[in-house]
Automatic annotation (TrEMBL), chains A, B:
UniProt superkingdom: Bacteria
Limits of the PurM-like N-terminal domain: 49-160
CDD domains recorded: HypE
Organism: Actinomadura litoris
Annotated family: Belongs to the HypE family.
Name by which UniProt lists this protein: Hydrogenase expression/formation protein HypE
Gene designation per UniProt: hypE
Matching Pfam families: AIRS (PF00586), AIRS_C (PF02769)
Segments forming domain PurM-like C-terminal: 173-325
Cross-referenced NCBIfam families: hypE
A Gene Ontology BP annotation from the UniProt entry: protein maturation
InterPro entries xref list: HypE, PurM-like_C_dom, PurM-like_C_sf, PurM-like_N, PurM-like_N_sf
Amino acid sequence: MTDPTMASCPVPAAETERILLGHGSGGRLMAELLHDVVGAELGGDVTAEDAAIVDLGSAEAVVSTDSFVVTPRFFPGGDIGSLAVHGTVNDLAMRGARPVALSLAYIVEEGLPLAELRAVTASVARAAAAAGVRVVTGDTKVVGRGAADGLYVTTTGLGLRPPGAAPSAVRGRPGDAVLLSGPIGLHGTAILSARERLGFEAEIASDSRPLHALVAAMIEVGGERVHALRDPTRGGLASALNELAESSAVGVELDEESIPVPPPVAAACALLGLDPVHVANEGCLVALVAPEAADAVLAAMRARPDGAGAVRIGQATAGHPGRVQMRTLLGSARVVDMLVGEQLPRIC
Amino acid sequence: MTDPTMASCPVPAAETERILLGHGSGGRLMAELLHDVVGAELGGDVTAEDAAIVDLGSAEAVVSTDSFVVTPRFFPGGDIGSLAVHGTVNDLAMRGARPVALSLAYIVEEGLPLAELRAVTASVARAAAAAGVRVVTGDTKVVGRGAADGLYVTTTGLGLRPPGAAPSAVRGRPGDAVLLSGPIGLHGTAILSARERLGFEAEIASDSRPLHALVAAMIEVGGERVHALRDPTRGGLASALNELAESSAVGVELDEESIPVPPPVAAACALLGLDPVHVANEGCLVALVAPEAADAVLAAMRARPDGAGAVRIGQATAGHPGRVQMRTLLGSARVVDMLVGEQLPRIC
């Protein structure tokens, strides 16, 4: 409740007893839903991490799942198929895992052109091959007209984590450098521009891409000193850093001027009234890295095309644990909170 | 094209270029969709088996995924949550695996009562605990009103296969006994009765339950002589046996009188114009077992509550490979084909 707009405009209690669009936002309502409903009913904590470690005896396997409901299904820089591969591969990568196998489940609305399902599936295949992961099993359900919006895709990834790689949302420490692998806001603004025909399509394309090789390069240099990784998808950089700050019980201080926002993204956000730190990304990551390893890890990131734009954007602190603050260009400090509800529905 | 009704009533070519409800049926249209569209685009065969083997080095892991779109979400004998656990646990079991971990992905329509999501999640938790499998990761997406029908659930299971357990759809051999673990038709008729308020709800409940312990008991006795297993879900016993016959290149001959159809299921099917062999099940399995092991495996099945109704219903043959024939009560033989299109939409 650090956002002052919350106090003056609370969500009515009666309204919160039904699922709202905001429950899918990646923001606070969603965190509450996962904690209070899903986590509570399952009796465990399935929400603190992007992917789960499964003890397989000698091998340490990692499992992650994501459903994709993005609209439109085809957008500059990708489509629902490539996104479904990248999103799950990246969730595995955030736990330090190399992707090994993917499952693919479709829920299809009656009436979808077969050509479109074929195109999406081809995109899945291309993205999987490029990421070096096999699609090993799948499922298809069809529902009547009006019972879905075209096509929804659920992928589940199985990965293997090499010894020494242990990034986790809970391992951030005061003093850690906060590294960002590239510019923010491209995916969300690309989707919105395509959806609303805003005319930015020529300038903005989604950053959707697999990040496991970048993570492997970071871990090769930094090992266990790569403490925490997160891909800032729904809810954007702000939500990702708030989740890490909360899980690791550290504060995070950011320098606004160090955060790379491409000019077309800034223009689109200004037009739409969005803050770029809340806009979804699908091809960058944020890392908490021990200070003594930060320069070497940053150099390793910059040596790769998928990390060429990597920058240090701040540091973790012992003060204000669980809170993210930003020093603005004007010299003041502001709290960077998670969104309360839904800003951009069906962005992934 | 062994069904004579096909020749006289083909699906118009123009119609087949769009997704039809029948593409989700578990029947021939779906098989063609998976082969021609999904399999072709992925460049591999992700559809021949219920679950995939993933080489994890020393461990042999099994992965399976399924989306659940059943309506109504609550029905006699279960709900979409328990069904989502049982369905995926059973797909793992059909490959001889013990379930280890489940992922859980929700696509939720705006407006769903939270109480309902809570109830479904509680049911997932109960079913998972009863099956001895952990839900280790999950995802929730919310779409706008009208963009889904309440709640869709996708589960992906990770299982481990012990040495010596190698059931596969391709391992059936001429001479194998065809074993069925219990009565057929309960799930599909329970769903239809609940959906259409047919009044059979007091007599018919879904057979939804996990089958991995039954499979373990079968393999303990029969080992590798348990050649092939299939749970006859969408498309029913007919589709399951056609798939096994085709994958193993054997014929299958069934004795109609040996197939257990509970009287209320027979009555419901007569009322609805359905053939019980095409009706979905969620708590029984069909097995091809080497003849010298069949009696011992059948006895092991009957010794358990989940296999108490097990019977031998026929045998695999070298003749008419890929085709399933049934000797009827009248002494004639008829071809038991897969359904062409959709008989019972959204049954699971």
